[in-house]
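Thread title: Can someone regenerate the structure for this chain?

I was given the following input by a collaborator and told the matching structure tokens would be attached. They weren't. Posting the sequence so someone can regenerate them.
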Amino acid sequence: MHCAVISGLSKKTRVFGGGPTIPDYCLYFKNADSKYISPFHDIPLFTTGTDVLFNMIVEVPCWMNAKLEEIIATEELLNPIIQDIKKDKFQYVANIFPHKGYIWNYGALPQTWEDPNHIDNITGCCGDNDPIDIVQVKVLGVLALVDEGETNWKITAISVDDLEDPKIHYIDDVKKHKLGYLEATVDWF
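Best answer:
Regenerated them for you:
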């Protein structure tokens, strides 16, 4: 199996081979003690010592076209990240001019889940059985997406390492400091 391992929250990466376009490619996570962990179950939702900054599992880096996703629950041991395959074909996102691939880091908040048996009051659809889409982020807002009859909430957040983080505290700040970005996000979906 072609696997890449990301060491815990320490930003070290070791690649054993392969890449997202290899059918059995998977990305596993390790903690600081080099023990394999589940990004879904073992990474805390909140960063240490705060209830306003969240950890985010980045499933697809900005500008990438390959559609990667985390396998949750009992489908795969340790919930690795793999490329999405439907009807035996790799899934990719299209470029939407002037952007290439995903226009932001795309991912999930650990220890969250959208129940496929619960009908959402706002969208009228059930959850998509995924985590609510590992970086420390400040949450700014939320976008409800209905995808194939399932509710899929998209969290808008900014990395605490982003140079513009000190200026952006609310969704309206995105409109001021990243012109056209929210509109491009809605168009992208």
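The longest helix spans residues 181-188.
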